[in-house]
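Board notes (copied after class):
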Amino acid sequence: MDLAPLMPLYSATNLEECMRKTQTVKYGEEVCFNGMLMLKASSSGLELGNCVWSIKGPRASITYLPSTVFVSAHALDCDYNSLKENDIILFSDFSSLDVMDENNENLGENAMLCDDSLSRDDGVDEDEYVQCLCKNDDIAEEIERISFICSCISDAIKSGGSVLIPIGRLGVILLILEHISETLLSSDMKVPIFMISGAAEKIISFTNAVPEWLCKPRQEKLFSREEEALFGHVELLKEGKLSLFPHLYSKGLLAAWKEPCIVFCPDWNLRHSTAVHLLRRWHADKRNLLVLEQGVDAELALKPFMPVAIQVLECSFLSGIKVRKVNPLLSVLKPKLVLFPEDLKSRCPSKEDAPWSYLYYSKGKTIEIPNTREDFEVGLPTDVAFGLQPRQLDKAIAVARLRAKLHLSKGQYVLVAPKDQSDESNRQLLHWGAVDAGRLLSALQEKGIECAFPADDDDGPAGCERSILITSPGEALVKMAPEKTVIYCDDESTTRLIYDALSSVCNGI
């Protein structure tokens, strides 16, 4: 095959240039995008560095809600308080769909995300919803699941087999390492543990470099007098039980290799690198164990290695919001609109009496979002505000004239006064109040305008319509009613004189 005509898609230089355009942010740090949007990231609780995003603009505020865990065994808990009362929630946690697919035959009306008993207030206190979100039952289940995996690993090691764990989720790896060290210590087994990945050393050092991303109990360990390690893998490294290598053919690994052993690698699809080589070596021995995360098609993944005798353990890990916690979360956040995946429509149908409305999105389709705010706030700089000369309309309302430009800055509209104010700034542009016919007639005559009340115009009771007939310098008619005053005139100069006279007898800005 002639490869000469093929053009490279990108180069290392392209990647470096792309990365230079990225901007790192801290949890809780607000950053401005294009002057229009304010972005703020907070922990999602699922993994170290995973984020929930709050996006605020002048006309709406949006919460982007990916896979989220409210109480985590390793990462900082989700800060849902910072997301309260945002207008729109973009629900992007698909883990609920996986749970539904697994338990579809067991799900009834009570499992619907928008069940009537949950989507209405029904007198339930917000504290009860918060308690539901903050229960650590999910973590207890996760730890129980990890303990079971460690017991299976221990059984495989005792039988003389090795264990391959091709899982890429950092939090799961850290928890398994922590619990397997305790299991091996209690069983008095000395088994080498290898983590083989090009990013292995960076991943492990990363867990000690960002303590502010860790859950509160682990942060407390950092500042305790006992100098306790943040994670169990720290002791394994110190004791030489855990070794980190970038490749399977690393010189140090060949010298340290010993079976049975436990190997962690991120090759979850079993199609490249370390996992392929070790499966070719271990697939025919029933004493060995392969730990896979649920969602990987084990039968398809293992086809290239048939026949297979290795034990396969498929495990599901906590990967997002549990179905039962969706409505308590919405009740706490109080959005106006929730965007759900189309696949959740059968479990979360739209209800007329729901406190929030629903829309459903799907891949490749554009949906139109209704406006959630009829009005919006506009900021006014201090120097401009002090320069205003307001006039009181009544006890509650005052008006002032301002010549300014509307700017968009840091997600808010701001009125900015121009540096050079024109001479026309003293001219009144807005008038209000009832017009006294007698005063207007005197004001017109003072300006040299020949005018009079029509013969049939009587000074009737207050509130009736009156007119002034103008004959010179041009013909015109001024009609005054309680709700409006209208000038009828074809001559521009005469109209200007009438307007000036009217302005002198009216309140205006």
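Comment from the instructor: The first strand starts at residue 30 and ends at 33. The first helix runs from residue 12 to 20.
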